[in-house]
Design goal:
The protein is of the alpha+beta class. The protein is 40% helix and 24% strand. It contains 11 helices and 11 strands. The strands form 3 sheets. It has a 5-stranded antiparallel sheet with strand order 6-5-4-3-7, covered by helices on one side. Strands 9-10-8-11 form a 4-stranded antiparallel sheet. Strand 5 (171-176) and strand 6 form a beta hairpin. Helix 2 packs across helix 3, helix 5 crosses helix 7 (113-121) and helix 10 (266-274) crosses helix 11. It is flat, with a radius of gyration of 25 Å.
C-alpha cells in the first residue's frame, strides 16, 4: 500500500505538472526532496496509471487541453464525506473489469485507501450505501433497520427491493413488497442496512423510476407550475440547499426569480414557509393555497 510520503509527493507532483511551468526530473527531485531517479519513477507511475503526462525538451508537464481546464490542486482535494463515498463506490466495482481495475490503480496512486476505509467504518451513511450498492449489484432485497418514516411518523424495519440510487447517493428507488409500489427511501433515515442475501429480487417487472424535480420531489403524475421572487438571502439559501436550482434562478432588478415545474408542493412549500419574509409567491395558485392552508393549521 502506498505510504504517507509517496502519497504526499504524488499530490505535489500532480499539482506541479498541471501548472503552467515545465519541470525536469532534477527540478522535481529538488522540489520533492528526492533523487532525480526517484522523481522519474514518480513520473513514470503517473504515466503507467493513465495520467496524461507529456515530455518536451526533457521537461515534463500535463497539458491544458481546453479553456475549461481546472487546476489539478482543486481536482485532487476531497472532503472527508467525498473520500468515503469514493471508497464505497470503488469497493462495489467488479475487479475483473479492466477499466474498473485501472480506476482503482489510478486512485491508489494519489489516495491512501486504507485511511479512506478507516473513515468509512465510522460513518453510518457510507456503510448503508455500500450495502445497498452490493444488494443492487447482486439483485437482493434489503432491510432498512429502524427506518424513520416522515410519511407515517413511525420507526420500523422496512424490507424493500432496491434498484436505483439517486440524489447524490442519498436516496434509493425500491419496491415496497407490502403494496408492490415503487417508492423513495432516504438512507440517512435508517440506523443500518442489512443485505438480505436469501431474498432475491421478486418485482423486477415493475421497477420504474419517476422523474425528480430540482427540489428532489419525484413525479407521480401531478405537476405544479411555480414562480417565486427571492431576496438575496433566499436566493443564496435555495442554491445551497437545492443546487440544481442554480441554472433556473435569474436576476430580476434587485431580486431573483425562479420559474419551474415541481411534482410535489411539500419540499418547495417547506422552503417558502421557512423564509416567508424573504420570498414572494407569484402566479402559483396551488402553491399559494398550500402555504395558506399550512399557515391556517399552524394558527389553530
Amino acid at each position: 500500500m502506498i505510504d504517507h510520503r509517496t502519497l504526499e509527493n504524488s499530490l505535489k507532483l500532480l499539482k506541479m505538472l498541471a501548472s503552467s511551468i515545465r519541470y525536469t526530473p532534477e527540478q522535481i527531485g529538488d522540489a520533492l526532496d528526492v533523487s532525480s531517479r526517484t522523481a522519474y519513477r514518480y513520473i513514470q507511475t503517473l504515466i503507467d496509471v493513465g495520467y496524461s503526462v507529456q515530455k518536451e525538451n526533457g521537461m515534463y508537464f500535463i497539458p491544458k487541453t481546453d479553456k475549461l481546464y481546472t487546476d489539478i490542486s482543486q481536482l485532487v482535494h476531497f472532503t472527508e464525506e467525498e473520500e468515503g463515498l469514493v471508497y464505497d463506490i470503488m469497493q462495489s466495482l467488479n475487479n475483473d473489469a479492466v477499466v474498473q481495475r485501472n480506476l482503482k490503480t489510478k486512485m491508489a496512486a494519489v489516495f491512501n485507501l486504507d485511511s479512506l476505509a478507516m473513515s468509512v467504518t465510522e460513518n453510518r451513511a457510507h456503510s448503508n450505501l455500500s450495502k445497498v450498492l452490493s444488494a443492487i449489484k447482486n439483485r437482493h432485497q434489503i432491510c432498512l433497520k429502524d427506518y424513520r418514516s416522515s410519511h407515517s411518523n413511525t420507526t420500523t424495519d422496512r424490507v424493500v427491493e432496491p434498484y436505483e440510487i439517486i440524489d447524490n447517493y442519498s436516496t434509493i428507488w425500491a419496491v415496497d413488497p407490502t403494496d408492490k409500489k415503487n417508492k423513495q427511501f432516504k438512507l440517512s433515515r435508517a440506523s443500518s442496512v442489512e443485505d438480505l442475501e436469501d431474498k432475491s429480487w421478486a418485482f423486477e417487472n415493475i421497477h420504474q423510476s419517476a422523474p425528480v424535480d430540482v427540489f428532489r420531489s419525484s413525479g407521480q403524475g401531478e405537476e405544479y407550475k411555480i414562480c417565486l421572487e427571492l431576496d438575496i438571502m433566499a436566493q443564496n439559501l435555495m442554491i445551497e440547499e437545492y443546487p440544481l436550482t442554480k441554472s433556473l434562478v435569474k436576476k430580476s432588478g434587485d431580486k431573483w426569480k425562479i420559474s419551474t415545474t415541481v411534482y410535489s408542493l411539500y419540499a418547495v412549500g417547506r422552503f417558502v414557509l421557512g423564509l416567508i419574509d424573504h420570498i414572494t409567491v407569484i402566479d402559483s395558485p396551488e402553491l399559494s393555497k398550500y402555504i395558506d392552508d399550512r399557515l391556517s393549521k399552524h394558527k389553530r
